[in-house]
C-alpha cells in the first residue's frame, strides 16, 4: 500500500518515495536481500537495509519483490505510439523502457522521432534503432537489385545522421521486403557506420527455419567484419522439421562469443510467432508496390508457382493444412480475425484441401495483406534457448488497444509469463537470473548506462511485484488481458502504477544512444 506521511512538510522530506521492507533483486543476478529504496529527483537516492528517511510517499513492499524496471529490447512502436499514451500493456507487464526500430523498420529521421517521443509523454521510456528496410525503401523503393554507389552513399548518410541523432544501433529485417533483396556486403557497410558511433547491430535474420545456421553465420559475419556488437532477434526454430535444433544453434552463439564476437540473443516465451501473411509468399513476387504484386498474382503461371511454393513449405512442416497460420487482423474483413487459413478457406466455401488454402492466402495478399500468428515451435527448444545466459526477453510487440484484432499474447504477457511459467512453475531459470535478463543485460547491451540496476545514482525505473501471484492472463484465444501481479511501477522516479492500476501519470522520455551529437 502507499502511505502518505501526515503533517509532513513536502519541502522538508528527505526523499520523494521510500520503498520499505522489499525483497530487493538489484538486476546484477546476485541473491535477493531485504531492504529499502529511497527515490529523489528521479534517481535512486539511497538503497540498503538501514535506509530510513522521511518521504512524501511511502510504499510498504512487505512480501513483494523490488526490481529494476524491465527493458523490452525488441518492440515495434512505430505508428502506434498515440493509440494508448499510457502504454498500458507494457507498463502492467513491468516494462519501463522499450527499444523500437527493430526488424529493419523504423522512422528515418531519428532526431525528429525522439523529439516527438519527448513531446508525446508516454508512460514508458523509448530508445530506437535505425531500420535498414526503411532506409533502403527511402533510397531505392522496393527494388530487387543491388544498390548503386550513389544509393549506397545515400544510405550511409542516413545511418550516420541517425546515429548522431541518438539511435542505439542499426537493425535489419532480412525476411521482409526490401531487406530480403540485400546481400551481406551492403549490410556490413551500413553496420560499419553504426559501429563508428558505438551502436549495436540487431537482426531479424534471413531465415529462422531450415536455413537457420546459415542465417546465424551471416549475422555473425556482419559482427566480425563491421566490428560491431550483434543482437539476434527473437531467437527460435520455426517449423516442426526443425524442432530440437537449438542443440545446434545455441552452441553457435557460444562459440562466436569465445571467438570474440560480442553477440547476444533475445526470445519471446511462446511457441508461436507473429508477422505478416505475406511471408508465406515467395520473396521475388513481393518486389515493388502492391499494384505490381497484384499484377503478378493475376498471371496464371505465377499463381501456379506461388501455390506450388507454399505447398512445398507446408510439406516440409509435415502438415496437411494451413491450420498453423491464424489471422490476427485483416482490415477488409474482420470476421477473419482469430481464424486459421484452413478455417477461412472453408468459410469461403472452398474444398478442404491445402491447394485451395494457398489460394486463400493469395486472396488475402491481393486485398492488402494480413497480420497473423504462426504456430510451429517446440517448447523444449524454448526452454533450452532460455537457459542460455546471454539471452534477453522481448515481446516483439507494439502498444496494444483492448479489443483490436486477435493479436499474439506476447504483447500483454511476455515478462509475466517468464516469471510465472518458467521461473515459478517450471524452474527453468532462477528469479534473480530472469530479472538480470530483463534489466541489466539489456541496459548493458544497448548502452542505457543509467538503467537496469537498483543502485544509487541510477534512474528510478522500478517494478514491485508479487512473485507468487504474478501471472500472464493473455492467451491466443483471448489475448486482450493485462498481466497480474505488478503492484507498483515507477518510471523516472514517478509512481505510475499504484495497486495494479495505471494512475494516468506519464513520465517516460526518449533515451539516446552513445552517438548523440557525434560523441
Give an overview in words:
By secondary structure, the chain is an alpha/beta fold. The protein is 32% helix and 20% strand. The protein is built from 15 helices and 22 strands. The chain has helices at 88-91, 110-120, 132-140, 149-165, 184-196, 212-226, 246-259, 290-298, 300-316, 341-347, 354-366, 379-386, 410-425, 431-438, 440-445, and strands at 2-4, 15-24, 33-40, 43-48, 55-60, 65-68, 70-72, 95-100, 125-128, 130-131, 169-173, 200-204, 230-232, 263-267, 272-276, 325-329, 371-375, 391-393, 462-465, 486-491, 494-498, 501-502. Strands 1, 2, 3, 4, 5, 6, 19, 20, 21 and 22 form a ten-stranded mixed sheet that branches. The chain has a six-stranded parallel sheet with strand order 10-11-12-13-14-18. Strand 13, helix 7 (246-259) and strand 14 form a beta-alpha-beta unit. Helix 2 packs parallel to helix 4, helix 6 runs parallel beside helix 7 (246-259) and helix 9 packs across helix 11. The radius of gyration is 23 Å and the shape is globular. Residues 4-8 have low confidence and may be disordered.
Keywords:
6-stranded parallel sheet, 32% helix, alpha/beta, 15 helices, 519 residues, 20% strand
Amino acid at each position: 500500500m502507499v502511505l502518505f506521511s501526515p503533517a509532513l512538510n513536502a519541502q522538508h522530506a528527505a526523499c520523494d518515495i521510500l520503498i520499505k521492507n522489499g525483497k530487493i533483486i538489484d538486476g546484477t543476478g546476485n541473491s535477493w536481500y531485504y531492504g529499502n529504496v529511497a527515490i529523489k529527483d528521479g534517481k535512486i537516492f539511497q538503497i540498503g537495509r538501514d535506509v530510513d528517511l522521511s518521504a512524501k510517499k511511502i510504499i510498504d513492499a512487505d512480501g513483494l519483490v523490488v526490481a529494476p524496471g524491465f527493458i523490452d529490447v525488441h518492440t515495434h512502436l512505430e505508428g502506434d505510439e498515440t493509440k494508448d499514451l499510457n502504454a498500458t500493456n507494457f507498463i502492467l507487464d513491468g516494462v519501463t523502457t522499450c527499444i523500437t526500430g527493430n526488424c529493419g523498420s523504423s522512422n528515418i529521421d531519428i532526431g525528429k522521432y525522439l523529439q516527438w517521443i519527448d513531446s508525446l509523454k508516454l508512460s514508458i521510456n523509448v530508445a530506437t534503432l535505425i531500420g535498414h528496410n526503411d532506409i533502403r525503401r527511402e533510397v531505392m523503393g522496393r527494388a530487387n537489385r543491388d544498390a548503386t554507389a550513389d544509393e549506397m552513399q545515400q544510405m550511409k548518410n542516413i545511418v550516420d545522421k541517425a546515429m548522431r541523432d541518438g539511435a542505439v544501433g542499426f537493425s535489419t529485417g532480412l525476411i521482409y521486403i526490401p531487406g530480403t533483396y540485400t546481400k551481406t556486403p551492403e549490410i556490413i557497410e551500413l553496420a560499419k557506420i553504426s559501429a563508428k558511433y558505438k551502436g549495436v547491430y540487431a537482426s531479424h535474420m534471413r531465415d529462422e527455419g531450415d536455413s537457420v545456421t546459415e542465417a546465424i553465420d551471416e549475422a555473425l559475419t556482419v559482427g566480425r567484419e563491421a566490428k560491431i556488437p550483434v543482437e539476434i532477434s527473437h531467437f527460435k526454430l520455426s517449423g516442426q522439421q526443425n524442432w530440437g535444433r537449438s542443440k545446434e544453434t545455441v552452441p553457435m552463439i557460444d562459440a562466436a562469443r569465445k571467438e570474440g564476437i560480442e553477440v547476444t540473443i533475445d526470445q519471446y516465451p511462446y511457441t508461436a510467432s507473429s508477422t505478416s501473411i505475406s511471408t508465406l509468399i515467395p520473396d521475388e513476387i513481393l518486389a515493388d508496390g502492391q499494384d505490381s504484386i497484384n499484377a503478378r498474382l493475376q498471371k496464371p503461371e505465377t499463381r501456379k508457382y506461388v501455390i506450388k511454393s507454399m505447398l512445398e513449405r507446408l510439406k516440409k512442416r509435415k502438415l496437411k493444412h494451413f491450420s498453423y497460420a491464424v489471422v490476427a487482423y485483416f482490415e477488409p474483413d474482420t470476421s477473419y480475425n482469430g481464424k486459421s487459413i484452413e478455417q477461412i478457406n472453408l468459410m469461403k466455401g472452398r474444398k478442404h484441401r491445402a491447394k485451395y488454402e494457398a489460394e486463400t492466402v493469395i486472396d488475402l495478399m491481393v486485398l492488402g495483406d494480413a497480420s497473423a500468428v504462426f504456430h510451429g515451435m517446440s517448447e523444449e527448444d524454448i526452454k533450452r534457448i532460455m537457459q542460455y545466459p546471454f539471452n534477453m526477453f522481448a515481446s516483439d510487440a507494439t502498444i496494444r488497444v483492448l479489443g483490436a484484432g486477435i493479436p499474439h499474447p506476447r504483447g500483454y504477457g511476455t515478462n509475466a509469463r517468464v516469471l510465472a511459467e518458467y521461473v515459478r512453475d517450471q524452474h527453468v531459470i532462477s528469479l534473480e537470473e530472469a530479472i538480470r535478463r530483463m534489466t541489466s543485460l539489456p541496459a548493458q547491451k544497448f548502452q542505457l548506462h543509467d538503467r537496469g540496476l537498483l543502485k544509487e545514482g541510477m534512474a528510478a525505473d522500478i517494478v514491485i511485484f508479487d512473485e507468487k501471484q504474478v501471472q500472464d492472463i493473455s492467451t491466443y484465444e483471448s489475448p486482450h488481458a493485462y498481466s497480474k501481479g505488478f503492484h507498483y511501477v515507477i518510471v523516472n522516479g514517478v509512481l505510475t502504477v499504484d495497486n495494479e492500476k495505471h494512475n494516468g501519470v506519464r513520465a517516460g522520455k526518449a533515451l539516446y544512444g552513445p552517438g548523440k551529437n557525434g560523441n
